Structure to design on (438 residues):
């Protein structure tokens, strides 16, 4: 008998006796009615017996075949999603399997193609042949021309015999697995970095060598020559200032690179920042005989930006314009007319009527240390980093630099920045155009 039945029967008897005592019916009817009611309540409250557990699926056979199917299909699913190309090459040398990344990257890939026809780089062919022969793992770097030169690294190893991929690979023989990585961008970055270090040390070494040379001269031949001493000290002063500017620009560049991935959040009037940093160069322009005209309404559109960095952008552009335009020329700053090429952006232009820049140089002007004329830049105190700094600051701000120039007529540099939410009252109180000239 189940455990719950004993107390239920006891309850039924007890309630029947109680009802028989209180109800105005015969004791037998009361006994039966009380017993039935108690029985119903007891059944409702009684713990229900559990259904028998569902039959477990029969265990899968754990033989080698099933394990292999499982592991090879999950391994296959995994390598199908790999972003880098992966090949499996059968003993015959034919490609037995290529993942989707390999299919995208290798235009010569055909079913059953021989690996040596697929990638013809001698280093690659040699490495795969050697692993097929001795089973050792190796890694090899090679270049390939796909429109332009690209650099790859391939890791070649032996695949376990039972991990078969594709019909070519069914033979119970060793197969080779090749993982290829496109190292072009990494290599380009390494190259840029080492070029940069070489250029920076060359730029520093030249004035340093000159200063050391003059020190020696002053210690020897010019020891007692006051006129020579004055002349050499002036040159040393100029060279030391050049080194200082270079170190300052290098420091700025590295600081900007550190924050390049962080979007600025403060809202400023771009016109006001540009006008303010141009105003600081009025004395320099006057000294050079250049007329600097600032035609910017300080209210204007707001942009999200780092105030100091945006000020540096305009300081570099106006400094260049004044420097390269030369005496009796004019440099103007004004708000750019809205452009379809730069929707939702506000532009400020720095234009000069100086010598201009030949067209072929325009795309390279923002490269570090790139100058149209090295000696002219040096004579004018240039470091070759001004426009590279502008480019990095604008990258951080998701801005653009547009350069237009006509040799003999002048250059136009326009800075475009995404518009912010409104105009900045703190900076944009004045409504009259701010005109200044030197
Ligand atoms: P630099 O310190 O040499 O001025 P930048 O990066 O600022 O370096 O500028 C790169 C080169 O672009 C300059 O060397 C110069 O040849 C050219 N350039 C920049 N601005 C002007 C301009 N307004 N007019 C003519 N050439 C310019």
């Amino acid at each position: 008998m189940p455990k719950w039945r004993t107390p239920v029967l006891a309850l039924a008897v007890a309630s029947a006796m109680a009802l028989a005592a209180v109800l105005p019916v015969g004791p037998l009817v009361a006994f039966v009615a009380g017993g039935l009611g108690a029985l119903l309540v007891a059944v409702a409250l009684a713990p229900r017996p559990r259904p028998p557990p569902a039959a477990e699926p029969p265990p899968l056979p754990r033989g080698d075949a099933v394990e292999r199917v499982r592991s090879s299909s999950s391994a296959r699913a995994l390598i199908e999603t790999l972003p880098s190309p992966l090949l499996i090459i059968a003993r015959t040398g034919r490609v037995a399997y290529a993942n989707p990344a390999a299919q995208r990257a290798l235009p010569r890939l055909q079913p059953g193609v021989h690996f040596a026809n697929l990638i013809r780089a001698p280093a690659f062919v040699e490495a795969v042949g050697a692993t097929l022969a001795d089973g050792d793992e190796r890694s090899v770097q090679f270049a390939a021309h796909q429109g332009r030169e690209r650099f790859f690294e391939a890791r070649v190893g032996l695949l376990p015999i039972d991990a078969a991929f594709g019909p070519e690979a069914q033979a119970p023989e060793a197969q080779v697995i090749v993982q290829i990585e496109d190292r072009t961008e990494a290599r380009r970055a390494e190259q840029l970095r080492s070029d940069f270090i070489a250029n920076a040390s060359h730029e520093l070494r030249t004035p340093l060598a000159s200063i050391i040379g003059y020190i020696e001269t002053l210690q020897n031949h010019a020891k007692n020559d006051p006129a020579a001493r004055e002349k050499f000290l002036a040159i040393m002063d100029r060279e030391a200032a050049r080194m200082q500017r270079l170190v300052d620009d290098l420091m700025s560049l590295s600081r900007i690179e550190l924050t390049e991935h962080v979007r600025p959040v403060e809202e400023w009037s771009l016109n006001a920042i540009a006008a303010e940093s141009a105003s600081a160069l009025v004395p320099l322009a006057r000294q050079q005989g250049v007329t600097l005209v600032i035609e910017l309404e300080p209210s204007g559109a707001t942009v999200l930006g780092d105030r100091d960095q945006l000020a540096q952008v305009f300081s570099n552009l106006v400094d260049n314009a004044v420097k390269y335009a030369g005496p009796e020329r004019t440099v103007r700053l004004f708000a750019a007319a809205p452009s379809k090429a730069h929707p939702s952006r506000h532009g400020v232009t720095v234009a000069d009527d100086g010598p201009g820049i030949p067209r072929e140089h325009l795309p390279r002007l923002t490269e570090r240390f790139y100058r149209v004329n090295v000696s002219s830049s040096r004579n004018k105190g240039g470091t070759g980093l001004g426009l590279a700094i502008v480019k990095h600051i604008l990258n951080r701000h998701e801005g653009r630099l547009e350069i237009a120039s006509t040799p003999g007529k002048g250059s136009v540099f326009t800075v475009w920045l995404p518009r912010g939410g409104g105009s900045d009252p703190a900076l944009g109180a004045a409504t009259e155009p701010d005109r200044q000239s030197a």
